[in-house]
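The protein record minuted underneath.
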Amino acid sequence: MENRKQKLRTSCDSCTNYVYDEEYEYYVCEVNLDEDEMGAFLRGTVENCPYYRKDDEYAVVRKQM
């Protein structure tokens, strides 16, 4: 189970929805999860996040070329 939590954490680290909140001074997911999704996230039972988007800061530059 620890492996699954690590995999999820790594995915969040590279997700564009995972941002630093200066008010709370920690990273948060900007997606508005419902109660069931949040429960699964906190338990670490989420296999693949349906809201995951790779944080690719160079995507816009590639489109301009």
Observations:
- The longest strand covers residues 18-21.
